[in-house]
Every structure is written in C-alpha cells, then in structure tokens.
Protein 1
Amino acid sequence: MRHRWMTRAGVGAALGLALAFGAAPARAAGKGPIKIGVIAEESAIVGQSISQGAQLAAADINAHGGVNGRKLQIIVYDDHSSAADAVRAFQRAAEQDHVKAVVTTFISEVALAIEPWAARLHMPTITPAAASDLISKQVHDNYARFKYMFEGWLAAPDLARAVCDSSHDLFVKELHMKSAVIMSEDADWTKPLDAGYKSCLPKAGLKVLDEIRFNPDTTDFTPIFNKIEALHPDVIETGIAHVGVQPTVQWHDQQVPIVLGGISAQATNPTFWKDTNGAANGVVTQTGTVAGLAITPRTLPVAAEFVKKYGRFPAFTGFTAYDAVQALAGAMRRAHSTKPDAIVAQMEKTNMVGTLGRYGFYGRKSPYTHALRYGTDWVPSVFMQWQNGKQVCIWPAKLCPNKMEFPAFVKSVHMAAK
Amino acid sequence: MLALQILIDGFAISALYGLAAVGFTLMFGVCGVLNLAHGGIMVIAGLVGWWAAADYGAGAYGGAAIGVLAGLVAAYVTYFAVVRPIQRSRVIPRAEEEIFLLTGTLLWGIMIQVGSDYVFSNNPVTMRAMIPGVMSIAGVRTPRNEVLIGVVCWAAIGLLTLLVNRTRLGKQLLAASINPRGLTLLGFELSRIYLVVWTIYGLLAGLAGVLLASFIGVSSANAGALTASAFTIVILGGLGSVPGSLIAAYVVGYAETITAYLLAPTLRPIPALLILVVVIYVRPQGLLGRR
C-alpha cells in the first residue's frame, strides 16, 4: 500500500517537474515560431488542398522573413470531416499546442460546430471553404462573442448571386434559355443557396420550375433526373458538394438532355475527369480558378509552386487556404502581436491581393459580417466548363474569352436556341 | 409511364442490392460468420477495378475482371488473416466466438476503409460502363449498362442457385448450413467447405463491387453504408436465407425508388428502415428466416 502511494507521489512529482520545465519554454515562446492550426479531412482532395495551401503560404512567408521576425509553423490535424473530431482537434490546438489562429474545414456543419469554440477560446479562426451564411450571420448578430470567426470563401448568398450573374450572361443571353430547375443536396450550405437561387434566377431571366432537394447519401439519381426531365427545363442549377461524381456520371450515362450548371464542388477538383471517366464533359460549375488563368498577379505563381511541391494543381481550397494564412500573417504583422483581439481587428482591415481576387471581408454592417467580399473589384468568382479533359474558364467574359461546348445529348442547348 | 420508369429503375438497383446481399447471407448460413468487412471488400473491388481501368489501361472489361479478382483476394485475406485465426484460437471460448468474429471483421472493415482512404483518397470514383449508350424500353430511356447490370446480377444469382441445388458441392454446402457436425461425422473436411464458401463469397462481393462502381460509383467512405445496407436486407429477408435476401433486396430497392419518385428524394432511405422495424416487430426471424 505504502509502496503504491510512493509511486503515486513519484508520478506527481515528475508531472510537477515536467509542468515546471514545460512552462518555461512556453513563456519564452515569444521568440519561437508562431503556430497556426489547420483542421481538415486529409483523405479528401478538397481537405488535403487546405493543409497543402496553408503549408505553402507558411513556407512563402518564412522565406520572406516570417512574421515580426518569427517563423510560421503549420500544425495539421485530421478531422475526418467529423464535427466531434474537429472540435477535439480545435481544443487540442488551442490548449496544448498553443496555436495563435486556426484554418479549418470545407464543411459548413463542421465550421458551425467549431464557431462557438472559437468564441469561447478567443481563437481567430477562418474557414477556407464552408459557405453557410449562418457562420457569418452569427458574427453579425452577436459580434462581441463570435467576432473571432471568418469565412475565407464566398458565403452561400454570394455564391447564388454569382450563379445568377453568370447564368444571365451564359445561359440567357448567349443560349436564349428561359427556365431552370434547382437541384441541391440537403445540407446547411444549400439552404441559403437555394433561397438565393429562387430570388435571383427569375431576375436573371430563368423561370424556376421546381426546387428538388435530395439526401446527400443518395447514390441513384435516376428518379431525380427523370422527374426533372419531365418538367422540360433548359438548365439544372445544382448546389452539390457532398455528391458530385455520381450525379454527373448518371447524367451522362442516362443522357439527360439538359445543361448541368450551378455549383458542383467536386467538379472543381482537377481529378474529376478521371473520377468520372470523362462523364464530366460539358458540366458547368462555379469555381475559384482554373489552370493557366491569372485572376491576379499572384494566381499563377502560387499555382506553379503548388504543382512543383505537390505534383498536381490544387482544388480551389488550396488557393483559399493559402490566402487565409497570408491574411492571418498580414494581420499579425500589422498588429505587431499575436493577441486574438488584435489579430481580429487587423483581419477586418484586410485588403490584399489574393490568389483569387482582391481579398477582404464584409464589415459589421453587412448581414454577412466577416464573410469574403464578392464582386468584380473583389473576388469575382469564376465559372468553368469541363471540355475534353480540361477545365476551361468561361465566365466572367473579361477574364475568360472561351466558348461553351456541350456533348450532343444535351439537346436543351439547341431547343432553347430555336 | 411513371409506373414503368419506377419498374425499370427499381429493377436494376434491387438486383444489385440482391447480389451484394446473397454472398453475405450465404456466408452466415453456411459458416456462421457475419462479415462486417463486407462493404470494405466491395469497395476494394470497385476501387482496384477503377484504378486498373483508368491508370493501367486495362479497359472496361479488363478493369472489371481485375476488380472481381481483387474482391476475391480481399475475401481470402479476410478469411485467412481475420476469421480463421479466431475460429482456431484455443484462447477464445466457443460461446464467445461469434462476438469475436463480429468485432474482428468490424475492425478489419475499418482498416480496409482507412487503408483505401490513404491509397485512393475518399473521392468517389466510377468505372466506365461496360456497354455505353442508352436504349428505349417501352419509351423509357434506359442506359444499356443498367440492363447489363440486371442481367449479370441475375445470371450470377442463377448460377449460385444451380450450384447449391444441383451439384454435389452444393449439397455439402446445404448440409453444412443445417448440421455442420453431422457433415464432419460423415468424413467431410469442414475447412474445405468453408474455403469454397469464401471463394464464392469473394467472387460475388467482387462482382457486386465492380457493378456498383460502374452504376453509381464507389468511395472508401461508402464501406460502412454498404455493409449496413447488406445487413438490413439480410435481416429483413431472414439471416442465412438466400431467397429471403433476394425478396428483401427487391422490397428495399423498390421502396427506395418509389419514395424517391412519388414522395421526395430526401426521404429515400426512410421506408426501408420503417419496413425493417415492422418486420423485426412482427416477424423477428425475417421474411424467410429459419431461426
């Protein structure tokens, strides 16, 4: 008994010593690297691009002298796209690894689970892809509490605006189309997206014939496509990210004669052509950028670095995560500090040339406080089409002079023209 | 028109569900193993088939053949590395063997999933259709590949039925499912019969995985859902009953398709679960179950 007690006391003493020694370097950490946590799903291409983009940005920043004389260090945590894993990783990043900011996730549900923790732990946090407007709405409605959260990609209402703006030019003006059906997966980010579609598509010249929402676990899309076809729309405006390969392949295999447009996040992956065995041919989607397109002077150099380091062109999150880390570093530099409130205050003032456009956030007056600014002067949002194995940029016309091409079975193109 | 559409669409997906569940139920019926790595084995077949076809130019048929082979190899590995050591262990009490097999195959299934996450990423992929193009069945535009899938599934199920009912080997399988001890007393080597079942199982699961990849696509993330779907169908049909599983596959397939067409695509998975609850409540042994 006594022996066991002594062991316990020994362990306690050892722990105490460890804590004492552990605390010493932590206090002296002012001269160590500034740590930034990256929490995303490493086995998904979109998630992998997040950690790779962040690491690339850190390497660039460190090559140019770091931040206030200190190096940046990226610590990567895999959340398997699970909210519980992400929150645990977030707590660990904040409490054990002492990161000064976090870049996390492409899934709105996960970002929404992290947001209250960013508020509780006062951790500047930015999501490079999650698009739910709830994330920024919470910042707007309860600023003092939630101000630590930023959306480093367009919020869903802006994504809907981008789809409507491009649809007006591409489908209405160029192809004389008149009607659309909305087809979205049932997820947090598509609720505001669908609401946006329904309000702005008619203004853009496309009558909305129906809105079809489906379970993100859906694998057989035949009933959905048959239902849509019976309505004879000219275009299907999608809102899909959890699914992508399956509906595209089935659209192609069943020869659904309607243009597939809108937002198909998986179709922005450079591997999408191979994943679908070329069924992607003709698919139109919103994206960040495509290979070879210089939205800003930074787009091509960063893309080239990415290809050199990782062997392939990134998903759009590679660019948004790169920009997110650059924005965080810029804020820390301007604030001469890594204190959360100082970082947030400077993040709000961000106005930098990003890889996908001019990078800055909406202010407190906007209903989408801290979401990325959309517009021709800011992030313009690009539309691309898969054409014979290549992602071809087709909108906005100022950046992309290319014409749309559709496979022969997409008859709605010719029907509308008549 | 709508009824015909439902009939045709439901047929292919149900046939695929049936094929995927038949091996699973046979395995339980004869060997007493509920293989929870089932979805993982199907996923391996689909992913390897896709990889062989897309990266190594094996073509649609070559890719499919390599995929089925990969399914078979995965089944053998499951048997030799996971199931047999548990069955032969002297440390594990007989009464607890089933629990160990469940846990063992479950963990193995997770390992397969995480492993293929690492090798292939969890991006869903689809195999090229073996016969591209569409045809019109009484005015319903149907992909030729969907017809092929229905035919191949039923051919495989038909062959299995012939094997079980008309051959000596099949009679041994049946006997093993009814009374394994009796069979050993008659001088049959039980381990040889188990190996035959794992071979049949591997081929069926591999074929189902490859067809699934060419119809709706596979991703490592599907492994759990595929096991769950086979499990639901088999419980519904009655554990160990091959005809029961086929009927259940059609009940589930059509319930899903009808819901997607007539109610809402969001509600697709719900009716199958409701039917399952009702069946377990009124007929716990399943539609055609023996115990």
Note: The radius of gyration of chain A is 23 Å.
Protein 2
Amino acid sequence: MMKKNSFSLNGEKVLYGLILIIGLALRLIQLGKLPLSDEEARLALQAFGLASGESSPFFNPDGGYLITTTGLFFIFSKSEFLARLIPALAGTLICLIPLAFQRLLGRKTALIAAFGLALDGGWLAASRQAGSHTWAVLFLLAVIWAVSSRRWKMAGIFSGLLLLGGVEVWKGLIPLGVAIGVYNLWFRWESFAWNDVWLSFRNNWKEFLTWAVGALLVLGSLFLILPTGWSAMGGGLISYLRGWNNPSGVSVGMILTAMLIYQPISTLFGLIASLRQIKKSVSLELFLTIWSFFALIHCFLYPAREVLDVLWVSLPLLGLAARLLSSLLRFNFDQRIAALIYGVVVLIFLMFTSQNIMRLFSPGRVAVNTQPEIIAILAALLFVIISVILIGWGWSTRVAGYGVTWGLLVWLMLFWLSGSFHAAGLGENPETNPFRRGWFISEADLLKDTIGDLSELNVRSRTGLDVMAIGLDQPAMRWFAREFTNFKFENTFQPQIQSSIVLTGSSEGVVFGENYRGQDFHWQVQPIWDLMTAKEWMQWAIFKIAPLENKMIFLWARESLFPGSEISNEVQP
Amino acid sequence: MSQILMTLIWYLMVTAAGYLTLPLAFRFLKFLPDRGFTFSRSLGLLLWGYIFWLLTTFGLLQNNAGGVLFGLILLAGVSAFFMRGGWFEFKDWFGTQRRLILTAESLFLIAYLSWTVVRAANPEIIYTEKPMELAFINAILRSPSFPPFDPWLAGYAISYYYFGYVIVAMLIHLSGVPSSIGFNLGIAMWFGLTALAAYGVLFNLLSGILSTNKPAESNRKAVGWALLAPLFILIVSNLSGLLDILHARGIFWQRNPQGVLESSFWKWLGIQEFDQPPPEPLSWTPKRTYWLWWRGSRVLQDFNLLNQREEVIDEFPFFSYLLADMHPHVLGMPFVLLAAGLALNFYFSFKKQSPPEPSVLNWLKDPHIWLSALIFGGLSFLNTWDFPIYLGLFAGVYVFYRYLHNGWGWQRVGDFVFVAITVGILGILLYLPFYLGFSSQAGGFLPSLIFHTRGVHFWVMFAPLLLPILFWLLLQGGGYLRPGLRWGVLLGSAIVAAGWILMLIASKVIELAGLIGQTWMTAADTNLARMGQTLTSLSGLFFIKQGGSGTELFQAALLRRISAPGTWLTLMIILIFVFATIVTLRRLYGFSLASENDPVRSLPEEDQNRGFVLLLILLGAGLTLAPEFFYLQDDFGTRMNTIFKFYFQTWILWGIAAAYSSAILLQRFHDGRGGVVKIVWVILMACSLIYPGVMLPAKTGLLRGQPVSLTLDGKAYLQRDEPDEWQAFQFLWEMPLGNVVEAVGPQYNPQFARVATHAGQPGLLGWEGHEIQWRGTAREMGSRRVDIETLYQTSDWLRAREIIQQYGIRYIYIGPVERSAYRVSENKFSANLGLLFANSNVRIYEVPDALVEKTP
C-alpha cells in the first residue's frame, strides 16, 4: 500500500509538472508575435512611460499589471512579449490552483481541472493578452484558498493583490459574493465549514486587515515608488460601476457562442453536472452551480461585458465538469475493453460527421448540391444513436454509456484543442479570435518594414527617418511608434507639412506641397459579427474564418526618399 | 444615465460619505446630544475632500474617480480606527435615536429632492457668476494634478478659495455625471446639507430643555422644533417680498393732479426700483421686471457724499439658492454650520469638564483640537471670510466659560487670542499648499465714513430674525436682564462709541496721511517722494470713493448717521441685552459656584444653552456693526463685499438664534404675552415667506399651474440655442489639454470665456475683471487682451506665430462671437495650421506641437 501511495503521489507530481510545462509553453510560445491591440497598448504604454521615468497623470485601474510590467520594462527591453508576460505567468499559475483545492475537489478532479485550465482556449486567450483577467482570477482563487485554510496573513496579502486587478476583480467578486450570500441564506452554510472560518476570521481580522492594507499600499505603489498607483485601486471599482452605463457592444449571443465553441467540454459537462446535482444535492456542486449561474447572469446583465468575462462562468463550470469527468473516467469495471472499442467506433463516426460538416461549409466549396454530405452526416449520427440503443438494450448499458461518452469526449477534446490553439493566437486567422479585446492590428510588421527600408535607404538607420502620424493618435500606433526615434503625432493635417513619411487615416483632404507617394495598409481588422450569416458563423466555428471590416492607414513617403530622385541623391554621401 | 438615476447616485454618495464618517463624528462630537449624526455628512465631505485634495496635491493620488474613491476608503479607514471599542455604544445610540435619525434623514432627502426639482426648472448655467463657477469645476476636473489650472488665465493656477469646487468636482468624478448636471445637483445637495446641519445645531441646543423634567419627552419635542432652523436659515427671507407686493398693488402711492403716482413713503424708503411708480394696472402680483427676484439682494443702499449710489450686496440664503450661483459663500454653508456644531460641542464639553488651561502643548496633544483646526482651516479654503468668524465663535466659547469660571480680566482677551492663534495657525498649516498659491485682493480695513446702513434697510433685511431674538431677550424675564443691565448698557454703548471714535480717528489719519504725502512728494529724496505719492494717491482714492473730503465729509457722515440711527441703535440695544444677560449668567453661576461644589450641574440646562445662543447673537451683532464703521479694502473700494459676506453669516448665526428663540417663545409662553408673541410671530413669518412664495414661481415657473419642462443639464440651453458651439465645446472637451484662445470681452457676459468654461481647456484670457479680483492685480494678464485681438485680426502669419508661441496656444477658436468682436483674418490660420474641427458656425484650428515647442 505504501508503495502504491508513494507511486501515486509521484505520478501526480509528474502530471502537475507536465501541466505546468504545457501551460507555460502554450502561454509563452510566440507570446510577442502579434502586435498589441489598442486595449493592450493602452496599458503597456503606461507601463512603458512609467519605466522611462515619465510621471503619468492617470493610472489605469489595472494597478497590479502596470506595476509589475513597469518593473519588467525597467529591467529588460520594452517588447510585446514582456507586455504580456505577467498575464501569461499568472495564467500559468492558475493551472496549479486546483492542487491547492485538492482536498475539497478530490485528487482526480483537481488534476482534470488543472489540465482544463492549462489547455482551455479562453484561459489561454486571457493569458496571452496584456490585461488583468488572469491576475484577478489567480488572486481571487488564492484568497479563497487562504481563507478556507485560515491563513489570514496570506489571505490579507492576496486580498491586497487582488484589489490591484482592476475592473476584472469586481466582475468576479460580485457574482461570487452574491452566490455565497444566496448559498448562505437558502442552503446549508455549515456543510462548507464556513462557521469555523468565520469564527477564525473574527479572531484574526486585524491580522488580515493589516496585511491586506499593507500589501495594497506597498505593492500597489511599487514599494512606494509610484503612490499614484493607489488611485488605480479605486479606479477599478469605478470603471466597473461605470460599465453598468456603458454598453460595450458585445452581445450575449457572442458570449454563449464563445463558450460553446471554445470551451465545449467545461460548458457541456459542467451543465450536465449542475443538472445532476439537483437530484443529488451535493454541497460543493450546489455551490459551484449557484456560482456559475450568477456569473452567467452577471455576464448577461452587465452592459460593458466582454467575451473574456466567460472565464468567471467557466471557472465554476470547469469545477463541475471536472467532478463529472472524474466519475466518468473510470477504467476499473469488467467490460472496459468493450467500452473502449465502442468508444473508438463512436469517435470514428463522429470524425466522419465532422469531415462531412467541414466539406459542407468549406469556404472554397462551389458545388450547389449539398445532399450527399447531409445524408452522410445524418447517417453517421443515426448510427451512433441506434448503436447506443442497441448496445445498451442488448448488451450492456454501461458499455454503451461509457463508450459513447468517451467517444464523444475525445471528439470534443479535438474540437476544443483546435479552438484553444486558435484562441491562443497560434493558429491561422488570429483576427477572428473572439476573446481578443479590441481591433486586431493587422499589417504592423509590413508597415514597419516599409518605413524601415525607406529609413535605411536614406538615413542608414531603420528607425531614424522622421515620421508624422496625423489623426492616428491611438495606443496601438503609439506603441508602434516607440521604436522610431523621430515619430510625431498630430491631430490635423498641416498644409506646410515637411515630414519624410506621413501616415494618415484617410486619403481624403491630403494635399501636400511637395510630391509624395502613397501606399495603403490594413491597420486594424475585426470580424463583422453583427452581419454574419448562419453559414458564415458555421465557417467561423469550424475554420475560424469570418468576413472582416478593416481600418486602413495610408503611408505617404516623400518622393525624394526613393532611389533615383534628385534630392535623395543629394542627402546620400 | 438618466437624470433621476444621477440624482439618486449623488444622494447615495453623500449619504455613504456621511455614514462612513459617522463613527468619527460619534467620537469627536460626543458632547452633542445627537453625537454628530446631523453633521456627519458635512464632516464626511470636508474630510474626504481634504484627503483627496492633499494627497493629489502631493502627487500621491490621481485627480480621477479612482483617486476620489481611494480618498473615501482612506476616510473610512480613519473612521473605523476611531470606532474601535465603541461599536456597542454606537449600536445602542442608534437604537434609541430612531425618531431623530428618521426625521433628519427625511429632512435631508426632502430638501435635496425639492431643490433638485427647483434647479431642474431653471438649470441654465449662463448668467451672473455661474460661468466662472462652472469653469472652476471643469478646470479641476481636467487638471492632471493640483493646484488646478486657472481656466481663464492659461499658464497660471487658480488663485481663489476653491475647496468647495474640489468637493463638487470630486462628487462629479465619482458619479461620472457631466459637470453641467453635477453643477445643479451640487446646488441641490448643498441645500440639503445646509438644512440638515442647521437642523442639527438647533436640535442640539433644544434637546434637553424643552421639557426639563422629562429628558425623553424633551428630546422628542426637540426633534420637531429643530425643523425651525432650516426654515429660518433657508426659507425665511427678508421683507423685500412684502414690499414688492405692496409696491405692485400701489399701496402708499397717490395720484397727483396730473395723474402721476407719487409716494413719500417709497421715496423715504429709498430702495431702488421701489422708489419708482409700479407698472399699471396695479396688481398684487409684482411685474416690475423680468428679474423680479433680484431686488431682494439689493435692499441696502449706500450713497457717497455726492449722493451717488454704490452697490451693496445683501444676499440671504434663500436668494442665494434661488439664484443658484455656486459661490463660496453658498458652498461654505453646510461647513460653517458644522463649525457652529463643533463650537457647540466644545461648549457642551464644559458641562462635563472644566475649561482647559491655555497651554499650547496640552492643546496640541488633544485630537479634538486637530479636528477643529481641520474644520476651521477648511473654512478658509472654502470661503476665507468665514474662517475668522467661526474661529471667533470657537474662541468665544472658551472665553465665555473661562469668564463664567474665573470672572472678567484682561486674561480673557489673552484666552481669546490663545485659542484663535493656536487653532488658527494649525488650520493654516494643515492647508498650507493652498496658501502658497493664493494671492488675495484684500488690502486691510478702511473706515466706512460716509457709508452706513439706514435703520429701515437694516430692518427690512433682518426683521424676520431680529424680532424673535429681541422678544426672547426681553421675555426671558427681568431676572436675566436687570442684574447685569448696568454692565450691559456700559459695554453696549462703549462698543458702539468705540466704533464711532475709531472710525473718525482712522478717517482723520487717512486725511493726514494724504497731507503728509503731499509734502513728501516734493522732497529731494526719491524714495520719500515715491512714498509720498503713494500715500497721496491712496488717501485720494479713499476720499474719491467717499465722494468728497474735509469738514464737509465728516459733518455729512455724522449727520447722516445721527439722522438715520436705526441700525446702530438696534445693534446697541442687542449688545446691551446680550451683555446684560451674560453678566447675569456669571452672577448666577458665581452664586451657584459658591454654594455648591458641582458648578456645572448647578446651572439649569437651559441657562447653559442660553449662553451659546447669546454668543451667536453677539457674533451676528458684531458682524453687522463692524461694517458700520470699517470695511475690508478690495478692488471695489466700497463696502459691497464686506456687507455681503458679513450679513450673510449674520443671517446664519441669527437664523439659528431666531429659530431657538421662536421654539422657546412658542413653547413656553402661554399667557397673554405669549398670545401676542404668537400673533406677531405668525404675521412675521407670513411676511417673510412672501419672498419665497412669489419669487420661486417667478424665477422657475413652478407652482404656477403650468407645465414646466425639467432638466438638470445646465448646458441644455446651449445645445438648443447654439448647437454649433455646443458641438464644438463637446469636441474640445475630448481633446488633450491645451491653451485655447477665444474672444475677450466684458465680465458677466456669458458670451466671453465660454470656450474655456464649457470645453474645460485653459483659456488664454477670460473675464479680466474677475482675474483682477482673484489676484488683486492685473500684472499676470499683461498684454493678453491686445495680443489676442492682434492674433485674430492680423494677416501677418509671422506676427500671429509669434503670439502663438509666446503663449503656447494650442487651439484657436473662431466662432460667431470672435467674428463679431474682431475682423478675423482667417487665411493665415487656414494656410498654416490644421483645421481640427469645423461646422457651419465654428472652426477650430490646432497648432502643431512642433510650432508650440519653439516657445522659449
């Protein structure tokens, strides 16, 4: 027995190690590849400014992100990778959080949940963008862990850090608070042993408060170097409250779609688990159900919602799904080989179905006749249904049940992993990722290369040429401009403009005194979610392709910069 | 966000601030029967504002909603710290004071909501000084750090007591409402806060004395009777309303044989507009002018020797709230009442402990003194005039008790100076960053030789407050007056006589200084000659304002005062009564002190509270008597502002005293005298409520039985009448901060300085007259007016560029006002600058950074 336990523990450690490695790898690979969007750049620029010693009059509410990223920028170079590193690290640590709740969840459940967190598209997307989503989740879970294990000093520190998570904190805290309240009022409080926790809190609240305030004041100001960071804490709550009056334009349908497409396992199995618990009435499941319910309601009601908010719903759902899956992934019954074989058969048919669905919605498809694919899809699904009934009736319900569940689970996992890859921004068409905040910056590299080539040609430095951006004073452009030594911004087109390169948002009204050559670039793109047809939605779900709207920018280079021109030759030695 | 929701959010914010500060009030105002409950909102706002302002000034907080919220959290933390160990006492008190809490909460809510409706009926931020106030608020909202930029003088910080605007901006920041709505919500909120704080002062005075044998019943009665304080302070008005309807109806007017209306009464009364025949047909409804309600604030009339009229402002709270200028005297109201509450708490503390010896170190160890300094210092930042007044009340409380304990001696003067200096210096130190950037127009005191208040005007102004106070002083019984009457007469007469003598001496000194100056002017020593010139011109200016000089002036001044003695005689009588009562109290107290070892309890509760009311009356009398003889020298050169600020505070102080007197009179006297008093009181109330009854509908259109469109947006008129400009302002609001240039014109004209005001950008030059008032000099403005004119009119781009660079101008605004004020040469802008914004009436050019950066 001892040996088995020891082996099991080591195996578990290995698995958690694997989760850590996978989680870290998926979060760090090509982290700096995609340009920062406006939303990301707004934060990164502030950290950049603070690291450069500028006094920032207004802190964004994401104090934790800003302060840590400022530190990174101060020590290292300023890059997209570093701008996203803190969320990525926080996202990686979230994968290990289930380990802390092992006793409450059960070992297998915790392990499944950890894998889910490491591989899930939503969590990957949140971890690979500059912002506070993962910070908020990490420290909220850390506070829950510290409180439930009555470590008040830790709880205080984590609470302080949690409050540095900006607006995201409140999106998570409020539904959780409501869920705890409802659970307390209508259901059993005692079963969670919260009474003991409360009693312990009453004796230790001073310690808790002291550490919370201390962490908030000291860490919130980067060891008192940036005291204005304190305002950021209040700013988070204010931004959250203002969100009730500022619709973001993200529809409820988009939220649900993202959940189904990118988080099918946690959504589907979590939902089944929550329905199942109504019968069983297990306290943990009940609480997780209530939490996910209020998180979802909050998502629906909150006008400033964004797709990443589904993380607060998927967190309890993932717990529920992991509980269910841990009971389904049992291999110690008699007919497991038969169930496994049947599962493989089901998977084959589901794959066949998938292939036909893909063919049916293939973007390049020109055939008008869709009948063969539809018949094939229906036949395959019919086979699965009939086979389940027949096997369950004639042979064994267990074999039928496990077989179809495993087959379905593997099929969903494939779909899920494909979505995760896309959500992480590692696949093709990253611009159609619904978890991405704001417009996708599309041809920044091309723009940079074009300016760099011209610059190198004329001033022998890829960043030295004077550039003026007119009417493009946006964070993403500011971030783009940071690498150039002579890059200026103006709001209006000046008739007497003399810059070597001029960037404008429109070609209308641009009249230069000298000769300039122009080229357009797709600067920002995003899917036209509101105008997509059902077919386009299916294509997006399968291939992640969607019709795009884009914002162009125009690069105007002075004629004299090009080889062969008179002036150009004059300036060259 | 709907305006109803905004209104609710403001209520919730201020209520939250109040309840978060309640533990602090509970601890520090513990000697008050209400434990500071009614002051907690004012205290909360003041402390919250202080924390936010100070930390933002030092760069520790940001001037945004996050910083504001952090300030509130910090305040809650401080409050919780002082709450430690006292939770159960707090809980018990809450349980036993439901009636008080419910009444106070209802009063606050009703006052706030009702004035929100009043504001919604006439929300325009356009006339009088509203543009200035909105400009300050917008500048504070948009300033990246403190001190906030001066919206009307780019490159400089605000040089004005702007704390009230910081508090309003703070609430706007947190609630996220537009400033044009926040402005009106602010006025309504201050109305509610004033009502609550006034209620609090009177409740604490009345609690325990209305039914001496049954404290619980007395407390219950006080809950109701205390409502008289907000009535007297906020609603009761001067008698101009009564005069207005009498005038409109043609009372005291007779037709002469030519059919022209004539009246010796109205001519004698000598109030502007009322001395002219009423418009016909005669009616009980005044229809003199569109701004009918304005006259109430100008019943006092000053004439110089040449009988030229000098404007005197005599606002009273109802007028101020009806006018709804968010001026410092209005913004200070809840806080001066808080200061009065603090003084009352200090006063009541001596019921339980002897007055402490004047020792600086001991006083500095007491956290109550620090809180007092914070509150009194805040008054200076809110409305500097109030600082010495309420510090005087605080010091007066100490002297009063020291007098009761130790009797009179010159040491009592020392006591007064000790408290005033200790708390005053602390108060200044706590707000030091404000003083470092503040320059005042005040330049000492001048004798008010020819200018004085005629008795009839004084009574028109103060009769609703004076009569209850005088009745109370008289009817309190001979027992209180007679023993000290001799001293009362002596002191009262001496003070008035001293005023006369000092005024005459000071006037003679000024005359003499002028004469000396004239002789020095011819001296060989240039310094002496320059000094002589200064003396001569100052003396000359003084006598120019007086309308003459020499014996004629002195004779006329004396003759006028003797022929119209109503004011100083009234005040002398009040002083006599007050001093007589104080001396009597000392005798009673001294007697009880000798007879018992427990001096404090030996004096009946009512007699103890009486002392504080006497101090309020005394301070009010001092404030109204002082400008009879002296006034503060400012840019106007007259006593307009001195009367305005002093009379306004007198209204508050006497308002409490009158409410207290009324409660006692109506409660106590049930005999024949009581009947007469009640009849007089009812008539007086009826007369003094005519003004609100007539002027509120006249200004707002409410209560006329006709539909009134309601909006709280003070800029809605702009959107309706000047949509192009409104659109331009909205656009500029979103643009980065930069100096904006627009047409310069006369002050009080809302067409000028409108861009800086509404767009929240620092304007190159706004109302010049106001800048001079704020800074006491025109030096900072330099040649801006001429340069702006040149900038618009010149066709020379190089000259224009020079001006742009000199002032670091970023936005050049060309709207209808600029086109009518100047011959705008726009080509130079369109040829050299980028057109940032354009619609059919407005064009805004932006100066590129490259051009501005060339500024040396």
Note: Chain A is about 65% helix and 5% strand.
